[in-house]
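Quick illustration for those who missed Monday's session on complexes.
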Amino acid sequence: MHPHSTSLLTISAIHPMIRSMFSENSVFDTLIIGNGLAGSMLAWQLIQHGQKIMVVGDESLPSASRVAAGLFNPVTGKRLVLQPYAETVIPAAVTLYRSLERRFGQCFFHEKPMLRIIKGRHEKETFEKRTVESDYIPYLGTILPTPALVNAPNGLFEQRKTGYLDTNSLLDCLRDYFIAQGFYHPFSFDHADLNVTSEGIEWRGFKAARIIFCEGFMAKENPWFNWLPFQPAKGEILSLKTDVKLPEKIINGGKWILPLQNGHFKTGATYDHNLSTLEPTDAGKAELIAGMQKLLTSPIEYSLLDHRAGVRPNTLDKHPFIGLHPVRPEIGIFNGFGSKGSMLIPFYSAAFADCLSKGLPLPPEADISRIAYG
Ligand SMILES: Cc1cc2nc3c(=O)[nH]c(=O)nc-3n(C[C@H](O)[C@H](O)[C@H](O)COP(=O)(O)OP(=O)(O)OC[C@H]3O[C@@H](n4cnc5c(N)ncnc54)[C@H](O)[C@@H]3O)c2cc1C
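Prediction with flavin-adenine dinucleotide bound:
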């Protein structure tokens, strides 16, 4: 139990006035479990709606958001598939990140074009087909000359509206803000301690109209939502430094290189449904180094700064899991952002906040009512 809560409970048991203050201060509209990108952004949106919220997060638990490179890439895969609703989701994300940047006086979202290496004739034909499709025009550039260092025997083209979110800086700012407002408790939440009543929920002296779980891949263990078809995928990622001058654009050829400042860069990512270990592995490191060197015409010297692993909360149908429990509407979930949290979470957190505060309908593709319960 968090030390603050122990002392408040003890004091409130002694002094009736403090007890009434404590109980009033412990009643919330929404209790949010998890302070990755999903929980933090949903909390932020609900605060903008005037809700009284409390975020419960245990930073010693794994967090995909703390590992992710935060890449923003609307057109992905061999078939160059455009993110569904890209025309809505992307402006929503950029607008929200820019408003958070103004609020906190820091840059979080960095626009950066991407050089997409063409794998072969088939991929080139797909690119040529896509470039004349009106939906794709804002996101696909032209074939560009290959920079000297990049290994692209079949050529490359530019992708637009790409970039990366500095997820750790944003999460640090939001957590510090929640702490300053008294909206954050660094607890580990145990589902067995939750009481659901006709008036809402109660957890360790905290009462709320509802609780929303934003636990990332750990939702598999959540007794109210373990029927949702998650397909978690582990990923590893490296942070490196080199004296070689890399292109300033992101290089993407399956594995990717994200150039940062002063010779720093990231490379990733592995993709594995085997969760037998959540730790970074030697095999993962070897795969990433080989993949990174293969993107370049000749091997570069580098120093390894960091090697991290996390688990993406992927879903079977590749859409998020958002909504209230079909039998216990005091309990909800905001999860399933897979490999695209930085692009999707702003739009869907705004939509869920509208749903929770104003009763507006959820986007149907993300609403958990699409999944049969039981
Ligand atoms: C290697 C890798 C690379 C990635 N690259 C990208 C990328 O380039 N671009 C992109 O958009 N996305 C990327 N992703 C995916 C992205 O990280 C996720 O979509 C996003 O971070 C999911 O956020 P979340 O808040 O749902 O989950 P998480 O970040 O995992 O957050 C869940 C939080 O819940 C907390 N929690 C869980 N259970 C409890 C409990 N019982 N009590 C208290 N707290 C609890 C955890 O501490 C954690 O902080 C990547 C993921 C990985 C692993």
